[in-house]
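User: Second chain of the day. Same drill as before.
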Amino acid sequence: MDLSKIKTLIDFVGRSNITELTVTEKDVTVRIFRTAASQEAVAEPEQKPRPIAGAPSGVEQTSHAVTAPVFGVLHKAPAPGEPPFVAIGDAVEEGQTLFIIEAMKVFNTITAPRAGRIMRLTEIDGGEVETGDLLAEIV
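Assistant: Same format as last time:
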């Protein structure tokens, strides 16, 4: 395994939620991991309160953006041909699976950061998303 591949793997682990990655190529195995001291806290941006269409006047609800934590292929369903994890209007609980992002044959589960209702979903399914792309909005 050449040095450029190892550097790419290190960068990938640094940008993702993965804490450990082991890759074997031919007779060389590389193990990359993050220790608790080197992990950074990642906060998702909270948007300013704004009126929601159909809400009584004077009532504001805050929306929360769910963004892609890593670059990869977005999957809205657990397997091809199965229904998606969530749809617009669905009520979700904190920790509920919303998507899966496949990056370098690793499947990263994207969960709801809080309880609420899905107000917006990305149209991408089976396509690539970039780190920071808006995937859903929870109100």
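Confidence is low (pLDDT under 50) at residues 37-60.

User: Great, on to the next one.
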